[in-house]
Amino acid sequence: xxxxxxxxxxxxxxxxxxxxxxxxxxxxxxxxxxxxxxxxxxxxxxxxxxxxxxxxxxxxxxxxxxxxxxxxxxxxxxxxxxxxxxxxxxxxxxxxxxxxxxxxxxxxxxxxxxxxxxxxxxxxxxxxxxxxxxxxxxxxxxxxxxxxxxxxxxxxxxxxxxxxxxxxxxxxxxxxxxxxxxxxxxxxxxxxxxxxxxxxxxxxxxxxxxxxxxxxxxxxxxxxxxxxxxxxxxxxxxxxxxxxxxxxxxxxxxxx
Length: 256
Prior knowledge:
Layout: H1 3-30, H2 32-49, E1 55-58, H3 64-80, H4 82-93, H5 99-135, E2 144-147, H6 148-165, H7 168-177, H8 183-188, H9 190-204, H10 210-241, H11 249-255
Parallel strand pairs: 1-2
Helix pairs in contact: 1-3, 1-4, 2-3, 2-5, 3-6, 4-5, 5-6, 5-7, 5-10, 7-10, 9-10
């Protein structure tokens, strides 16, 4: 396509994605109270476990509650519309791909959505424990009157961080599919990879406690080795389909 047509196509894909997010945000607004209750539940769990303590979600001005509901609706819209805007990203780059690359990239898009949602779910399930640890540092004479906007910003970032981190195997398999990262390289580099996962988990998680870091890093290590296994199977399939004169000694050994 000429540059003008590329820009028009980009605008069309962007408008579709934005429209889907808006529709998702409208649905989120309709169910805003239910979403609020779900995301506030970990905080209220901690509140019930500490009867008599000064613990509450606070809205410090007239517009604070309205702003929180708007932000939660947008957050819900991004989650609900994720299959659509992820597909639009793929559809924009697909015309420039070969038939084989299209199949590979579509498989990547199909894997992204469940992994992202699994990471978000994992974050929600671990959130109560993370709050107990973090609020446990409060001095005896202190209180936990949490601003609603700050709390829900923390929760949504926490969930997005987990969701994005769980896309690690998709990224690794994408590099393997285009031949940039063989499975043997992933297997040989598992020690520095595990170290980097723990360092990244410590940086990404918005909480400073080691418990949350291990909750993120543990599944990522499992996902890493799962990606290693899939990459080695993909390398073996690729080697089997190559003519003998193109095979390396390692490929011939793995075939045998």
